[in-house]
Each structure stands twice: as C-alpha cells, then as structure tokens.
Amino acid sequence: MQGATIRRSSVVVTHTTRSCPEIQALLKSLDAQRSHILDMVDGLDAKDLRRPVLPSGWSCLGLVQHLALDVERFWFRAVMTGDTSVIDALGDIDDAWQVAPDVPPAEVLDRYRRETDLSNSAVTVTTPDTPLVWWPHHLFGEPHLHTVRDVLLHVITETACHAGHLDAARELIDGRRRLVLT
Q1: What values do phi and psi take at 141, rounded to 5?
Q2: Domain containing 95: what range?
Q3: Is residue 43 part of a domain?
Q4: Which residues, other chains included, contact 118 with Cβ-Cβ below 8 Å and sequence gap of 6+?
Q5: Rg (CA), the chain
Q6: What are the C-alpha distances in Å from 2 to residues 18, 19, 24, 62, 176?
Q7: Which Pfam families match (predicted)?
C-alpha cells in the first residue's frame, strides 16, 4: 500500500492512498492543527512546559497530555473503533490535564505523537459515514456524534481551540507568537 508522507514539526503522518478524498482532506486539516500544537511547545524547557500561566491552572504539557488521552485516544480509539483496552482503561485516568512530576515531558510529547499515528491508522481505513462503534452514555447521554466524519470535525475543532490556548500561553511565557496561515 503506497502513501503520502507529511512531515511538520516532528509530526510524520502517512495517509494511505486507499482513504477517500474527504477523509484525506479532514486529516490534512487535523494534521495542521496537531502540528500547531507541537510547534507551540517546541523550544520550551521542562519548567515552562509544566508552569501554569492562566488562572484555570493548566500547563502546556497538561494540555498536550489531555489531547493525547482525552481527545485522540478517547474519540478515535474508544468511540470510533470500540477498542476495549482503551474503554476499560478510561477509569484509570484521574485527570489528563495534570502530568505527574516524575513523567518526563518527552514522554508526554511522544505519547501525543503515537496517539495521532494510531488515530490516523484507524481513520484511513474508514469512510466518512462509517458509524461509531461505542458511545459513552455515562458521560454524554444520548449520542450527538454518529459517524467518523462527526468525530473528525469534533476533534479538528477541539484541537484548533486548544492550539489557540497554547498560543496565548506561549505568548505569556516567552512572548513567542505564531502566525496562522490556512
């Protein structure tokens, strides 16, 4: 199976040529947001990655861990594919926004990259109208997302929102700003 490899800010994603054009377009948009996330934490030391700069108390590293576990892993591996190992482990995550002090930042960033790779692998073998396998009624009540397309649009929106949060945090940390061209 041949594929096109995209490399941005240490994100390498291979989209198979078998995925449909709509899936490819949605993944391209999501990949741009993922790259934005990694770009905004690039160059920060461990202290700054862990330092909360907004009153809500989250850190840049905590946000990346949230994206890895509560967004990529949850929506694609649990909801979209029904991966029972992920569903069973959901109760083991206390608060993904809080990174334990003994967890190295590189481990969190690598986990995010791994989860995005796993997400892409799962998505590229579907169609936009593929129904979701599992729904967390205990968290959200009746389903409001029904297809792979719905999940992709949700994750693109959530990741873009959090990229904006990282923009603000990074500017407060060291003044760095990122021009977004879409």
Answers
A1: 70, -145
A2: 3-174
A3: yes
A4: 72, 73, 76, 77
A5: 16
A6: 8, 11, 14, 36, 38
A7: MST
